[in-house]
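I hope you will forgive my troubling you with a question about protein structure. The matter concerns a single protein, recorded as an amino acid sequence and a row of backbone structure tokens. Please examine both parts with care and let me know of anything in them that strikes you as inconsistent. Here, with my thanks, is the record as I have it:
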Amino acid sequence: MIPGFSSGRRRFSDLSEQEVLALAISNEEDDARIYRQYAQRLREEYPSSAKVFDEMAIEEDEHRQRLIDAHKRRFGDVIPLIRREHVSGFYARNPIWLVENLGLERMRAEASAMERQAETFYRKAADRSSDADTRKLLGDLAAAEAGHTEMAGALEAKHLGGEGRADEDQAAHRQFVLTWVQPGLAGLMDGSVSTLAPIFATAFATQDTHTTFLVGLAASIGAGISMGFTEAASDDGELSGRGSPVKRGVASGVMTTLGGLGHALPYLITDFWTATTIAILVVFVELWTIAWIQNRFMQTPFHRAAFQVVLGGALVFAAGALIGGG
């Protein structure tokens, strides 16, 4: 540490027994609050998973009360104010808005990780404690957190039977496809196909790789911005259920730009025919990638998706080559 400066954090090994107990109380409060926010976020679309998180929050409240009772018996009514962020190297929770935006599976995974982290914390604290009563207390807390993990599984079995879990997983997958895959695929198709003509027309007309690259860069970025704003403005997602217009706009805009840049970047190579050969190979990979995505996420038969995409791409490429070579 630089002399004269302080990080404002204390090492866990320097905490007193009372402070460790106070830290455990604040941890339980935070985790219960997180579970309730998960439940609120999921209640409309995934009611069964919301019930799981509601009951997990209730369990956290009960354990917090047990910790408070233990603190009162040992140290009195005044609980020191100490939280995770006050302890150096202590595990942190991800911001709630980050996890919410990543969907149901991320919430489930995050909850599982939260319980494992809490159990590890209590076990390590018990291992370093030399006081018999404190060691027992921390060991009991570790066992309680391990029980939380088992309880989460039991609650999922209770509220999310095979059919319920499958229904929610299917709904989550559908939402992922509508919000991210569909607009991203539309953008990739537009960026890959619509920029073929201007890029290859410029290439064959000028045989100047630098000029071709600049045209491809401008076309890709311009198309990405246009597609992104069009997707975001076309549907607010409220009635269609397609999700956040910002997410859809980002997915569409970024994939459009990448689709165009794929066959523009080879023209950074100064040799014209080398750059053009590589660009044609990249186009081939892009078109087959689009066909694969259509087959994987949109359930389009692969041969039909490949025929449509490759035929469309070939026609646009031929148009660009003919115009540029004319």
About this structure: DSSP finds eleven helices and two strands in the chain. Residues 167-325 form one domain. The first helix runs from residue 17 to 42. The beta strands are 10-11, 87-88.
